[in-house]
Amino acid sequence: MAVVLALFSLVAVNALAASKESERVENSGQVMQEILNVPDNIPQSLLDKADCVIVLPSVIKFAIGLGGNYGRGVMTCRSNDFKGHWGAPTMMALEGGSFGLQLGGQATDFVLLVMTERGASGILSGKVKLGADAAAAAGPKGRDVAAATDVTLRAEILSYSRSRGLFAGISLEGSTLRPDNGANKSLYGKEVQAKDIVLNGAVPAPESAKLLLKTLEKKSPKHVK
Fold first, then answer.
1. pLDDT tens digits, residue range 50-98?
2. Is residue 123 assigned to a domain?
3. In a domain, 225, yes or no
4. Which among 48, 34, 42, 179 has a CA at the least distance from the CA of 112?
5. What is the tens place of the pLDDT at every residue in 169-220?
6. CA distances in angstroms from 112 to 14, 92, 201, listed in the order given
7. pTM for this predicted structure
8. pLDDT confidence of 3, banded at 50, 70, 90?
């Protein structure tokens, strides 16, 4: 009886974890759809050039005196060496600290464009510090891309934020990005590495990613370099 109860508890815990990750993927799709449907959003030319997109819904900024960011989300890349359709997502984690007086725990949605294969490969391989391991910059929006600085155009990662309805480019330098392979196990039901998901097509996209992939395919079906 004890063994049966233990197995039942394990199955219940695994099902709860899978449900949580599926909800996170669904929320990422909702965020992406909403952001791409507002005026002065991510410039089309930049989205078309992006190899990958990272969506981090409801990232929490916290602490008093010593601030930080903590968030979980997804990364989807174009398949076939970054030239094909948007592929199955890998779960991602954003962590980082910033000094200064910060009060409260405001939630912010982040969207990051990964503009180079080098940037994508670095993120998929392990923890990457933005601004150090990968060149990062606040992304221009709307028609601002025409006036973008050389720093922005050379960046491997362009980052955007949405908080309280306001959408803007934002710098995340100092934060770290890493694949969340524990969450991948929960989502896909087996051990699978971020690199294998994105580069080798190891698993099909889950149903929860339908909105995210449909939105990106509709908005940017073709990769333009």
1. 999 999 998 866 554 445 667 899 999 999 999 999 999 999 999 876 5
2. yes
3. no
4. 42
5. 888 888 899 999 999 999 999 999 999 999 999 999 999 999 999 999 999 9
6. 29, 12, 22
7. 0.86
8. low
Query: Which residue range forms the structural domain that includes residue 183?
Result: 2-219
Residue 92 lies in a domain: yes
Q: Which two tokens stand for residue 106?
A: 């405001």
- Residue at 178 is within a domain: yes
Taking only the tens place, the pLDDT of each residue in 72-85 is 999 999 999 999 99
Assess contact for 171 and 161: CB atoms under 8 A. Answer: no
- Nearest CA to 110 among 37, 57, 167, 68? 57
Asked if 88 and 96 count as a contact pair (C-beta separation under 8 A), the reply is no
Q: What is the rounded distance in angstroms from the CA atom of residue 21 to the CA atom of residue 180?
A: 11
> How many Å is the maximal CA-CA distance in the chain?
69
CB 43 within 8 A of CB 141: yes
The structural domain count of the chain equals 1
What single letter denotes the amino acid at residue 178? R
β-strand partners of 224? none
Q: Residue 155 — φ and ψ, nearest 5°?
A: -65, 145
